[in-house]
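Structure ticket #2291
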Amino acid sequence: MIQVKRYLNNSNPRHEETKKLKTIYDDRERINCLENLSNELFYEIFDYLDGCELFNAFSNLNNRFRTLLNGSSLRLKINLRFHPETIKQYRSTCIVSRNKDRIISLNLANFYCFNSSFTLFNINSSFSHLESLVLGKMKPNELKSLLINLISLPRLFSLIIHYDDDLKQINNIYQMIVKLPMLKYNKLSFNSLESFIPIPIATTEQFSSIKDLIIDHCCTLDELIAILSYTPKLCRLTCRQINESKKNILKDTVNVISSLTRISITKCYAEYDELEMFLTKISPQVQVLRINTLKDVTYLDANRWARIISQNLLELNTFEFQYNDLIDEDFKTTVYHELINRFNSSFWIKRKWFFKISIQTDSWDDNVIVYSIFPYRKFEGNFQREKTNDEKLIDDIYENNIQQSIISNKHNSVATSSMILNISDLSTTDDDEPFIEMVSSILVMLPITCLNITLSGIYIATLIDFIKYLPNLDSLVILSLPMIEQNVIYAKFIREIIHPESQKVCRRDLLFQDNADSKQRIKTVLQIVDELFNHRILPEEDDAKFAYV
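Resolution: structure written out below.
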């Protein structure tokens, strides 16, 4: 028995030798399995790798990989990012320069910040298979010289330029870009609060083949119209910022682009009258329209939007609109604020475009109200990230409100769609009453049924002041509450939450985030609700619903 135990002991030298031989055999088997992969499969794998890293990893393995790397069917994607000067020079001279005719993608976004001239390689007709090019940090003369060379490339479909030099050269840069014969995608980026693009309207012989244009800089609406006169085949337009026109726009200079179906404007400072003319004249067949705007309160005219869409934008199926209203001492409600509820009419509901109002802070930490129209999308499937319980509840509330709106519309009833007020961020103090008073005139006129507070904490006094101006509220979602003296909470909450007209509150769905720090706060609010029940503020105890995360 002892001998058997010794034989089975892992410390036995013969056993160790057996393990070592087995490991060597397994390694050889793995190598053989790798060698058995087809060249086609290796080329598919190589397609996901950067060309320079590809040479560094495989060129010294064996003859087969060297042959694969030098094969004419291998297409290279080169990304020359920040590297030490020696590595950059090696990759430029030993990889890029020797494989110009096999490179299909070349990213030089941060490459030329080290060079004042083309000292390592020139991009010219020898890059016969180049399809995508990214440029950055180049001097105006270098860039213009390069753009001239790019005209000779037979397969250059995509061009991205990050430019931060003389902005007066943007005009010339655009006129050279539109001369590239095969270009389908173009993005030009530069940072400036103003624009100077005195580009003339195109003639009949100056048309570009661009289908996807990203204007990643500010420009005026008249400058945009001039640029678009060169792109009659354009399908998708994305603009970072559109400013008010510097000169009057002649309608005769605005040509219809029949292929333009998608428009997105991240910041629109153009007047509503200008934008209406632009949309109805240049792209009446647009299918997807996304606009984020501010300042011109005329954009809140729901009836005017409905008229434009129903009469001129007949193919529009996706409309995402956002208007940012700065709330400060100069804020005043207008006739358009008074008519905001018309975004809840049957015109919008039957298209499944729904209205939402949010309170948040902008980049300067100022409080803003954001009014938005968004299309109804029911996200399903295994690819959606796992949501928290509070996110699921908010989705359920949205879903319920939207379905109720759709049902009401089907019965030809007057649309009175419920709304959700989101408070995602708030530049708060312990006394937010002045701010709430400023927005109260807007809150009371909207049928807000759910108050969703997702910021990290809100003062009880602020919460009470908000609820006071929400007579239709039936759902309250709060992620966290600050600790405050309980008797103060009881007295003010019970006194203020009752609406004088009805002397009661509606059904309330309460959601609290259940963690160690908030347990006492949850207990406090539940005691408040018990007080409400004891004072018969709610008509029936079953009308209250509490959800926990």
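Closing remark: Residues 319 and 413 are 24 Å apart (CA to CA).
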